[in-house]
Write a structure and sequence with these properties.
The complex is a heterodimer. By secondary structure, chain A is mostly helical. Chain A has helices at 8-50, 52-63, 66-80, 87-112, 116-124, 129-159, 171-182, 185-216.
């Protein structure tokens, strides 16, 4: 079926694209998660009314299509702020905030799921707010939030395909370049899809493993 | 010594404590009985500062609980409390549940904390459950673990808020036995309970609460044998 002209150099080119996809995703998910935890805690602590400005800010990142965010952020950084930033930097920045916006909601849900009475018991033992957060609330919230967080991370990985609009040649863009040259779209997309699967699968499995382990506790 | 002076407390429009006065001396066991909504559980959570009060004073060993300058985290180290819901930390083993506060709050080494935790868990009859997760324990075992967890902080006072109310009837006895043992060891305790015969057995004094007021307090023989207040008589007739 596939009598291909794909060379080893082309496969390496695709692998490099996959590397960029992994890198953009990893950076964004790490920064986005740290920010998301911070924003999530702030939201819970301040309550809905006081946290409204933050919630509104995060809602923007959840509501506007990522493609538009990337284009506008790139234009804003370059034309308004006159900053010479690489596309890669802008991609990571936007994707991090995008991740943080979703992650904050997941964290808030996780924290809310920890029973007030459990927190009360921790405080009654003399634990400070921070000790309660660190040793009781966040570990318990993590268990609740993990499946959604895995879903988010996998989603961000696939959404990262959009960063081509700020001139970052990640996996999908690399595939398109090869398609233009080799004119074998189905075969190349099959390979590209396989790359995505290989990247996602370990994370999905790892999440499943953690869930199973925790449910055995 | 715990001194409760004219304490008032409202939740919104509802005044749940309407001027409570009560002193509990070191080594004393005071049980608080009364219908639901009489304010007895609220009083306990006010004593260790989990709930603010509207007026009055609660003084524990000379420290005013609700004063702005009071370090509540420090004060709570000497006032253990066990709730109706045992509130196990489900992500930790039984041993870790008990060692967490001594390690993080008192700054004990792991070995020291474990030694104390093991001693307290054996004391409440859970010496063989150290590495089990609390979700695998019965309600009565979890409640005894919660008691050991509070005791591991070496508190001077223990507060028990209806600790048997959420348990299956056949598990109530084991928890009451544990409480009785603590009382006999001389622990200062304030217990809110619906177990009347238990209250009669362990208490030095029994207080009857009715609609936010301490209607009557006295020796168990007097409260159960010859209650003076009309509401006490009604209440005791209804629970017998």
């Amino acid at each position: 079926m596939f009598d291909t002209t794909l060379s080893l150099t082309d496969v390496i080119f695709l692998a490099k694209g996959a590397g960029i996809t992994i890198l953009v995703t990893a950076i964004s998910v790490v920064i986005g998660t740290v920010l998301g935890i911070l924003f999530g805690i702030i939201r819970v602590q301040l309550g809905a009314v006081l946290a409204a400005p933050l919630t509104f800010f995060l809602d923007i990142f959840r509501s506007v299509p990522l493609l538009i965010q990337l284009v506008l952020a790139n234009a804003f950084m370059g034309m308004v702020l006159q900053l010479q930033l690489s596309g890669f930097f802008v991609a990571c920045m936007v994707l991090s905030l995008y991740t943080a916006a979703y992650c904050a909601e997941i964290v808030r849900g996780g924290i809310d799921a920890v029973p007030k009475t459990t927190r009360r018991a921790a405080r009654s033992l003399g634990m400070s707010w921070g000790q309660d957060m660190r040793h009781i609330v966040l570990p318990l919230a993590t268990r609740v939030a993990l499946p959604s967080w895995i879903g988010l991370a996998l989603g961000v990985m696939k959404d990262s395909a959009l960063v081509y609009v700020v001139q970052v040649t990640e996996l999908l863009k690399s595939t398109q370049i090869l398609i233009t040259r080799l004119q074998e779209p189905l075969f190349l997309l099959l390979i590209c899809g396989a790359f995505y699967f290989i990247i996602s699968f370990p994370l999905a499995r790892f999440g499943g493993y953690l869930e199973k382990r925790w449910s055995n506790d | 010594m715990i001194e409760i002076q004219n304490v008032r407390k409202s939740f919104g429009q509802l005044e749940v404590l309407k001027g409570i006065d009560l002193n509990v001396a070191k080594g004393e066991v005071v049980t608080v009985i009364g219908g639901s909504g009489s304010g007895k559980s609220t009083l306990l959570t006010c004593i260790n500062g989990l709930e603010p009060i509207d007026s009055g004073k609660i003084i524990v060993d000379g420290t005013e609980v609700h004063a702005k300058s009071t370090d509540l985290n420090k004060l709570r180290q000497k006032i253990g409390i066990v709730f109706q819901q045992w509130n196990a930390f489900p992500h930790l083993t039984v041993l870790e549940n008990v060692t967490l506060a001594p390690r993080k709050v008192l700054g004990m080494s792991k070995a020291d904390a474990e030694a104390i935790a093991e001693k307290q868990l054996k004391h409440v009859g859970l010496g063989d459950k150290l590495s089990t997760h609390p979700t695998r324990l019965s309600g009565g075992q979890q409640q005894r673990m919660a008691i050991a967890r509070a005791l591991a902080m070496s508190p001077d006072y223990m507060l028990f808020d209806e600790v048997t109310s959420a348990l299956d009837p056949q598990l109530v006895g084991e928890v009451l036995e544990t409480l009785k043992m603590l009382a006999e060891e001389g622990m200062t305790m304030i217990l809110v309970t619906h177990e009347m015969s238990f209250a009669r057995d362990v208490s030095d004094r029994v207080a009857f609460f009715h609609q936010g007021i301490m209607a009557e307090i006295g020796a168990p023989e007097q409260i159960f044998g010859d209650p003076q207040h009309e509401e006490t008589q009604k209440f005791l007739a209804s629970v017998r």
